[in-house]
Amino acid sequence: MSLGIYLHTPFCVSKCPYCDFYSTTTFSEDDLDRYTQALICEIRRWGNTLQQSADTLYFGGGTPSLLGGNRLALLIETVRQSFSLSSSAEITLEANPADKLADVFSAFAAAGGNRLSLGMQTADDTLLKLLGRRHTVAQTERTVAAAHKAGIHNLSLDLMLGIAGQTPTHVKHAVERCANLDATHVSAYLLKLEDGTPYALSPPTDLPNEDETVFLYHSAAQSLESYGFFQYEISNFAKIGFESRHNLKYWNSEPYVGIGPAAHSFLDGKRFYYPRSLSAFFRGESPIEENPTDTAIPENSPEEFAMLRLRLTNGLTEQDFRVRFGSVIPTVWRERAAALPSSLIIADSTGIRLTRDGFLVSDAILSRLL
Question: Residue 42 is inside which H or E element, if any?
């Protein structure tokens, strides 16, 4: 089975108040060069060790577009050589609309990059300011135009739901803007107050309550479907054939290698991660294997497989469970599912899956089910 490769870029021009991803706003061009070389060394090391091919490559962050076109091209070529990256590989770059990216997109596309994930978040400038974002709606449009000009037409846009002051009208307008920008994929995330972030320490006023957030989620999903985006995961919608191949590896329990500080991997049934420290990465500190006792669900277990699969609209199917574990879905899981409201979870001959309302309380359902 081909690998997915994730490269983390821990640099941002500014830190969003709700963001819990590992990044720093203090860096220089020399730091970017040094980091690129450190990534190259690790890519080659993993390639020599694993001797496996890859069919997806994802540049996440942070803001990986800050590496610039030349460094990105060098990294793509290194992955291509080290992992026999397939000619049809999905190669994704995350970027923020605030940056001038025409040259970056051109170099990325010339090197084989073919998918872009943009942090649009909303189509309202007032809401963008409340989120601490640097870009405007107009900058999003210019960035998308630059991507199209560079030949990148597989475009994913992020939308944030549950923003202070956000209404269903805001959401519907944002979805309409995504459609007008010819997006092929939309990730619609609920705002979460992550521990230690400025938003968690001092939450914004006028956040939607639980019922209002549910309504915003349904408004987004219904609007997206009306424009031809079908829901395939809790927070992800795509035109037919444009699901994120890389992210599906996570939810399908397929192998992937994450390189960079705080990047996670899943190989041979084991999960491990690099320390959440740029200096540790520069020192060459090895990844740390996750301690199975640190999680409620054992890694690579039927329970973990079910937990990840139930994030997908297709859910946990009998066929996939039998292929993976050589047995049927445990009867006790079906019994527990049957005891829950059918408005939240469905168990039938094909398997078990959550409804859209079930997605909103998935943590509670999974706790009961597994």
Answer: helix 29-50
Cβ neighbors of 77 (< 8 A, separation 6 or more) are 111
Residue 98 token pair:
């605030």
Residue with tokens 């990256």: 85
295-370 CATH fold = Arc Repressor Mutant, subunit A (1.10.10)
Numbered ranges of CATH 3.20.20.70 in the chain: 3-250
Domain 3-250, classified CATH 3.40.50.620, yes or no: no
Rounded to an integer, what distance in angstroms lies between the CA atom of residue 326 and that of residue 72? 42
Instruction: Output the pTM of the full model.
Output: 0.95
CB 338 within 8 A of CB 348: no
**Mean pLDDT in the chain?**
94
The per-residue pLDDT for 24 is 93
Predicted confidence band of residue 108 (pLDDT cuts 50, 70, 90): very high
Q: Tell me: the pLDDT tens digits for 311-339?
A: 999 999 999 999 999 999 999 999 999 99
